[in-house]
Amino acid sequence: KWCKQRWCYVDPCSCSLETRPKVTMYLPDAVFAGMSLYYSYETCESKDYFTEKFNLDACVNQKSKDKCLSLKRKRGENKCAWTGTTCLGWEIVEHPLCKKLVEAHSGVSASCRLATAVVAAVLASLMA
């Protein structure tokens, strides 16, 4: 069911969707402009049937602060951050650009900017 759904990489700091984007599991250590790669089904107007069942280490699947903060990247950095009620990708909660967006769009539904330039640059660096 999830395989037929559309998804895309997005800039996590440009998202003001109710369903927050998730850190990719396909390139978990990929970084562009100091941020992990994030994906979103909602941006592409699809339902996310994948994350809950198949991306078990997704930040949003961690239901406690301890589990949330225990997830690390290979370099030892936090993958996730605890909001007090929810576990989200670290950048969404802690990155200065994302913090400004969260404050400005709290509770507002909108969309995410597609990160095609980000993905192209990451893939180019991986192939170099």
Short key terms for the protein model shown above:
128 residues, alpha+beta, three-stranded antiparallel beta sheet, 5 helices, 7 strands, 14% strand, globular
Structure commentary:
By secondary structure, the chain is an alpha+beta fold. It is built from five helices and seven strands, in the order βββββααββααα. It has helices at 51-54, 65-70, 90-94, 96-104, 116-127, and strands at residues 8-10, 22-23, 31-32, 35-36, 38-40, 80-82, 87-89. The protein has a three-stranded antiparallel β-sheet. The protein has a two-stranded antiparallel sheet with strand order 3-4. Strand 6 (80-82) and strand 7 form a beta hairpin. The longest helix has 12 residues, at 116-127. The radius of gyration is 14 Å and the shape is globular. The chain starts with 7 loop residues before the first strand and ends with a helix. 32% of the residues are buried.
